[in-house]
């Protein structure tokens, strides 16, 4: 009987130990360390979880290399980890990878690749991706310039509460880009953006004497 009890306790302990070593548990522990600014400990756990395919850990490891949290800044490694997480379907990683391609940080600059990854994030309903796609269509970067498409993407971002999208949509209404010119609509969306602290929107209101 004692042997059975000892064996049962051992199996239980092993189960608890294994659960603590899951990628999800490692990532959770890393997040706790990161929040406490224990970056070395956070990176160590991010690496373990990332190596076992945890996309959230891969994203955060990319950020650590991007901004130098617990490691030396390395844009190439940042882009590599963003890529792994992006390919796994992580929308935030897809946005960060798109930004890498936009600026040429750690990867060759490519507006087409930037658009591709923004679109993947947009397919998941990401407001930041909607706004950034709007900018690409507005300026013809990586896609053929299309003001109507730009306004459409800005609208989706704005309706989700994205301050940059609200500001950009307001400007579209103000200038009649992709939508009929409408000062009232311009004021409506720019004010929403300014209320969220979007500095360009606040300056735009001042420049146009909007109260």
- One letter per element, helices H and strands E, the order comes to HHHHHHHHHHHH
The parts where pLDDT drops under 50 for at least 5 residues are: 1-19
Percentage of residues assigned to helices:
over 70%
Query: How much beta, percentage-wise?
Result: under 5%
The structural class is mainly alpha
The number of strands is 0
Gyration radius (Cα, Å) is 23 Å
What gross morphology would you assign? elongated
How far is it from the N-terminal to the C-terminal residue, by CA?
82 Å
Average pLDDT over all residues: 92
Largest sheet composition: none
Written overview of the protein:
The structure is a single chain. With 211 residues, the chain is mostly helical. It contains twelve helices and no strands. The protein starts with a helix and ends with a helix.
Give the topology, please:
Elements: H1 2-20, H2 23-35, H3 39-51, H4 55-67, H5 75-87, H6 91-103, H7 111-122, H8 127-139, H9 147-159, H10 163-175, H11 183-195, H12 199-207
């Amino acid at each position: 009987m004692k042997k059975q009890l000892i064996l049962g306790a051992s199996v239980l302990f092993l189960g608890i130990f294994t659960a603590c070593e899951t990628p999800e548990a490692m990532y959770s522990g890393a997040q706790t360390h990161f929040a406490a600014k224990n970056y070395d400990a956070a990176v160590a756990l991010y690496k373990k979880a990332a190596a076992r395919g945890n996309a959230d850990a891969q994203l955060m490891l990319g950020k650590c290399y991007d901004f130098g949290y617990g490691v030396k800044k390395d844009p190439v490694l940042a882009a590599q980890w963003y890529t792994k997480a992006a390919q796994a379907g992580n929308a935030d990683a897809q946005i960060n990878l798109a930004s890498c391609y936009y600026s040429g940080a750690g990867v060759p600059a490519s507006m087409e690749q930037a658009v591709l990854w923004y679109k993947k994030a947009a397919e998941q309903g990401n407001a930041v991706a909607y706004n950034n796609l709007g900018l690409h269509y507005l300026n013809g970067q990586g896609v053929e310039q299309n003001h109507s498409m730009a306004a459409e993407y800005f609208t989706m971002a704005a309706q989700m509460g994205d301050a940059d999208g609200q500001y950009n949509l307001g400007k579209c209404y103000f200038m009649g880009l992709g939508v009929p010119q409408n000062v009232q609509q311009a004021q409506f969306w720019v004010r929403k953006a300014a209320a969220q602290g979007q500095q360009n929107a606040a300056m735009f209101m001042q420049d146009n004497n909007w109260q």
